[in-house]
Amino acid sequence: MAKTIDFMCTAFRDGFQSVYGARVQTPDFLPALEAARDAGIRYFEAGGGARYQSLYFYCQEDAFDMMDAFRETAGPDANLQTLARGVNVVGLESQSSDIVDLHAKLFKKHGMTTIRNFDALNDVNNLIYSGQCITNAGLKHQVCVTLMELPPGCTGAHDPDFYEATLRKIIDADIPFDSVCFKDASGTAVPSKVYETIRRARKILPGDAYIHFHTHETAGISVAAYKAALDAGADAIDLSLAPCSGGTCQPDVIVMWHALRGTDYQLDVDIDAVREAEQVFKECMKDYFLPPEATAVEPLIPWSPMPGGALTANTQMLRDNGIMDRYPEMIQAMSDVVRRGGYGSSVTPVSQFYFQQAFNNVMFGPWKKIAESYGKMVLGYFGKTPVQPDEEVIRIASEQLELEPTDRPVLELNDADPSKGVEAARAKLSEAGLPETDENLFIVAACKEKGLAFLQGKAELGVRKVAAEPETPAASPASNNGSYQLTVNGKAYSVSIDGAQATVNGKKYDVALDTETASASSASGATPSGDATEVKSQMPGVVLKVLVESGASVRSGDSLLVLEAMKMEVQVAAPSDGTVQQIHVGQGEHVTTGQVLASLA
Q1: 60 alpha carbon, distance to own chain's centre
Q2: DSSP string, 62-113
Q3: Cα(581)–Cα(564) distance, integer angstroms
Q4: What is the pLDDT of residues 259-313, one digit of tens each?
Q5: Is the peptide bond before 292 cis (omega within 30 degrees of 0)?
Q6: Which helix (H) or strand (E) holds 179?
Q7: How many independent structural domains does the chain possess?
Q8: 244: Cβ–Cβ under 8 A, 6 or more apart, which residues?
Q9: Of 49, 152, 303, 411, which sees the most CB atoms within 10 A?
Q10: Could you say which of 496, 520, 544 is where a domain stops?
Q11: 3-state DSSP helix/strand/coil percent for the chain, to nearest 5?
Q12: Helical (H) or strand (E) element with 577
């Protein structure tokens, strides 16, 4: 008789991240969740990971409200699982002990059953306290070993010996867990290594231990890897539903059902009901932009292991900033970044650190600008990497970030940092005049300024939907006048032109017009005159903060603005001493490479 294989439906968390950069609004997908429930699926990935921050950053939604709605729709008996990143919990930055504990309590409060808990560096020290908090909160703890295939020619980690040693460290640390997951976010671990790793785990763990395997179709080997995992003794796998299946996602439930026909395994599912649920899901998502790379296998991923959940998120940000043409260079550069970065698994947040550094290496030149998070990783501030990073990269990172390498435990560093923790979050809420609740404290700790902006009602909508272009009245060539309503990257702009002056959302700009076309004199709308020094953007991004005002005296190196690009905060510094003549951009504005941001007299 065929063995029944459990599966978790990842469509509404990992699927959203892998296809839409996690930018999906809750009312849009609940009918599909209901249909999946009615098809008999009872095990869902319901939040966490990038689906936590993205709701505040881009969807104008509260992640805790989303989890409540998920529980109500899935029913009281569903196993709802979320994803956590050890001491990073659901953010890109690591947290202090009190925030790690608060994370577990709040996710239990808002209806979750299980937390899958991993550390991208496979530093078991980052799993000990976080695992204890999850268990203490009354949640099931699924502890992870993270997998990937190293770029060809690399050795020293990410083989069955390394994974076995990591699992033994988890056991020796007495971390409480209910199940073990081997998580391959980049979909690059070759099936033979998957088989040998899980075969060894089955021998090490108690006989009734529950083993789960997770991968993506990005490199085209997910079905083979799942079959290898099952042959080695895995109990459960992760599957998704169209349109969030295949490509950068997990294999489709229907695909895996078909692949297992005639074997010793079967999925306990009503496949016709699943087909109907997928039709509902496709209808729910028809208005969302589907990136072409989300549905494709990428043969080059083994050389530059980019996880499915990060691949489309990054390509979408490149599209937003008009530099998608540089993507092949960045993928190529990522191989070197992985090789020299200490072999952390290419899963969030490390996958983002890798891509940020590859982005910088392409935009500024190899190793000319260290991405802060990548630099902190090679210096030890996120834990111990599987192998020692390249000594030259360590030196460059130390010099640019003005930090010394460390081997102190991450929680110890964070607990000593006054900018982190509940008290720091409480002070920010108080300063902003916002109510103090556990949820608000956690939102501010995990999402920082964007969390505050959401709580203040200032969050911007960044959901990418396919919509007809608004009709724009043409300006009369004779008068050079006109009023326009434009939408760019989901943000609305009211534009009016009167002769040589344009007004955008109430802000006036001088423009140069002829009788054929109308164009701003610069992308910022500014034309510095005289001997003013122009401060230009070195990369595309969004203005996160403006730190100075016109008339302010600055010294060379002082920060004028902060841009956000590829989830990085980039300081724009004054190139010389002087007085700020004009700031040409405002908070929330998109800027392009070479755009004038400020002028100094």
Answers
A1: 17
A2: -HHHHHHHHHHHH-TT-EEEEEE-GGGTTSSS---HHHHHHHHHHHHHTT--
A3: 23
A4: 999 999 999 899 999 999 999 999 999 999 998 888 888 888 888 887 776 777 7
A5: no
A6: strand 179-183
A7: 3
A8: 11, 12, 15, 16, 18, 19, 281, 285
A9: 49
A10: 520
A11: 40, 20, 40
A12: none
